[in-house]
Amino acid sequence: AHTGPITRSVEDAALMLNALCRPDSRDWQALPPDGTDYAAAMRGGVRGLRIAFSPTLGYLKVDDDVAALVRKAAACFAALGAIVEEVDPGFADPRRMRETLWWAGAGFRCRTLSPAERKLLDPGLGEVVEKAQAITLADFMAAGLERAALGAHMRKFHESWDLLLTPATPFTAYLADHVGLDAATLARYADRPAFTFPFNLTGQPAASIPCGMTPDGLPAGLQIVGRLYDDVTVMRAARAFEEASPWDFPRQPGPRR
Length: 257
Prior knowledge:
Radius of gyration: 19 Å
Number of helices: 10
Low-confidence stretches: none
Distance between the termini: 28 Å
Number of strands: 5
Mean pLDDT: 91
């Protein structure tokens, strides 16, 4: 449900960003072009950067195997010359605010569908559209104010920190068909974007980069978050980590034990 690029290397992501960042007159929020070549700018390294490492954002539960790999990745940044400290960004779980905004948006987009057409929606989306019916204008406006407060909080946080490191997801990939999964497990899967959606809400640039394989043979991801509009530093950090900890993408899925 996200429209960002997925690439096999940081360099490819930089080349794609060179194209994606060009302004479009149809987007009234587009920033003016600044001439940045991300493929060139990504090569600055991380020496001297102040980096906060938050393994849980202060409120999330992370699988032990994922937590260990992300902690090892954070130590890699220190070895590369960055100043790394374990610091939570200091905001409460914004799940309810995110749900209000997301559900309301989904409900609005599907408002013209007939009851028969709604039955054809993906079941998860259909449930969200139904929940949207209970959201009031006051609920939506209050969520917008909470979002603005979160953005202001992170602007303040990044006065002290160039980057924030977290897990990309609290656990590895789950079975695509969900067959045999109990209700508690399915409910927990709602946490899969818990590390990423706060920074979608604030509009901050962030990258997810592989940081190792768990004993089950599944990849874990490191999230690198930058201050608003500072995509360059995120790309520099991702490139530096990729060079220090190269990732060989398997051409076929590994064994699932």
